[in-house]
C-alpha cells in the first residue's frame, strides 16, 4: 500500500485568502509608491523646466536691457536734436523776412512811378523805415496809396509819413515808417 506523503502543509481557506489579500496589498502599495515617485519626478521635471525658462527669460531681458542701454546715447542726442529743431522752427516762424520786405517796398516804388528809394531799415520786430526821393508830390501820393492797398492785402500796416521835405528846385525827400506784417522765413504749406 502506497500511501502518499504530502510534504506541503495543508493551507486552509482563510490562509489562502490572506495570501491573496497580501498580494493585492503589495501590488497596490507598489503602484502607490510608483505613482508617488512619478509625481515627485514630474514635480522635479516641472521645477527644472521653470528654472531653465527663468534663466532664458533673464538672459533675454538682460540682452534687451543692454541693447536699450546702448541706444541711450543715441536717444539723448536725438531728443537734443529735436529740441533744437523745434527752436529753429520757432525762430524761422517768427523771423522777419528782410528780403521779402525790401522786395515789396521796391515793387511798390516801381508801381508809383519815378521814386528812388535811398535807404531801408528793418528792425527785428518788423518795424520798417525807408526814405527816398520823388520828383513830384503826385508820385508820393501814389506811393502812399499803394502802401495803403498793401495794408489791405496784409503786407504792411500802421503806415506813417514821418518826414516830407523839399527845397526849392529840388525833388521831394520823404521818410515813411510802417510795420511789416508778414512773419516767418519758412512757408506754411503744412
The spatial strand order of the largest sheet comes to 1-2-4-3
Q: How far is it from the N-terminal to the C-terminal residue, by CA? A: 130 Å
Query: Spans of 5+ residues with little confidence (pLDDT < 50)?
Result: none
Residues in helices, as a percent range: 55-70%
Per CATH, which architecture of one domain? 2-Layer Sandwich
Order of helices and strands: HHHEEHEE
CATH topology of one domain: Gyrase A, domain 2
Radius of gyration: 52 Å
CATH superfamily of one domain: General secretion pathway protein M, EpsM
CATH class annotation of one domain: Alpha Beta
Protein structure class: alpha+beta
Largest sheet: 4 strands, antiparallel
* Share of residues in strands: 15-25%
Annotation, overall tally of beta strands: 4
Descriptive overview:
The protein has a domain at 96-180: 2-Layer Sandwich (Gyrase A, domain 2), CATH 3.30.1360.100. It has a four-stranded antiparallel beta sheet with strand order 1-2-4-3, with helices on one face. The model has no long low-confidence stretch (mean pLDDT 83). By secondary structure, it is of the alpha+beta class. The protein is built from four helices and four strands; from the N terminus they run H-H-H-E-E-H-E-E.
In brief:
Helices cover 59% and strands 19% of the residues.
Task: Give structural attributes.
alpha+beta, 4 helices, four-stranded antiparallel β-sheet, 19% strand, 190 residues, Gyrase A, domain 2, 59% helix
List the helices and strands and how they pair.
Blueprint: H1 13-70, H2 72-94, H3 98-112, E1 115-122, E2 127-134, H4 137-152, E3 156-166, E4 172-180
Helix pairs in contact: 3-4
